[in-house]
Amino acid sequence: MKHLLSAADPSREEVITILDTAESMATTQSRQVKKLPTLRGKTVVNLFFEDSTRTRISFETAAKRLSADVINFTAKGSSVSKGESLKDTALTLGAMGADAVVIRHSSSGASHRLAYGGWIDIPVLNAGDGTHQHPTQSLLDAMTLRRHFLGHKGGELFGKGIDGAHVVIVGDILHSRVARSNVNMLHTLGAHVTLVGPPTLMPVGVEGWTCDVSYDFDKALATEPDAVMMLRVQNERMSAAGGGYFPSVGEYHRVYGLTKDRLYSMKDSAIVMHPGPMNRGLEICAEAADCAQSVIVEQVENGVNVRMAVLYLLLASEGGLL
Ligand code: CP
Predict the structure, then answer these.
(1) CA count, 13 A, side-chain hemisphere, 255
(2) Which residue minimizes the CA distance to atom 4 of ligand 1?
């Protein structure tokens, strides 16, 4: 595999290799000197056509910790605002000698176009394309879940997968590349996923996905899931489509929000996840975001480990990823 475009692409064996490599990277990050010489002389371009905090900064941190040179490109302030196309931007980057491109774009399929458009011949890593995929988010979620389920103690893991775990993913499924990627990734790793949300925020054809679907959050919680992943309500995509997906913020929070009561109904060992950025008071209350069961900060930390692993596997070995 030369590129990382979709969470559906890697096999279980490949995912486990990525997660094991991320664990090795994590052990290096607790050292006083965090930098490894692995990608010295390589140049990674971060191409962000859409806003990002976690993904952009963690890809940059990951590349720098591996000693790569990093060029950060954001659409705002570049010639894209003058109408330059993705093709011409790609050709420019190729001419500058980039060794890999990390791309976030508001259009589903943009990373695939960049990888297979014939414009550049370097690894492409999808950092989120429209409502389609966000593979490194699902990898960092898998790493977080695996650590939790397998008991992470002093850097030692007890087992390999997360088979049989039940993960409930709640909220704006329609606009969520995180939900799509996690359904793929968690299925590959043998976990059971239930998607929960209002009918207006469920994609057409969701019944055919490798997961269960529910419109009742309380019923899903009554099954005592091992993890509850809350999704951001993507107001910007809803406004662009004219809005009207739910009656009010209060109504959404009451029916689909992780409230204090719902948090207290979860079993003690269950964890609370959120990919960020969070709308506190909408999909998640502050108590749930900050509670002892919340692994939201751990997810961000694992983002660096996982992105170091995929950059290493894509750029440091001749055959590409694995
Ligand atoms: N989870 C995630 O993709 O966050 P950012 O949009 O901040 O990168």
Answers:
(1) 16
(2) 54
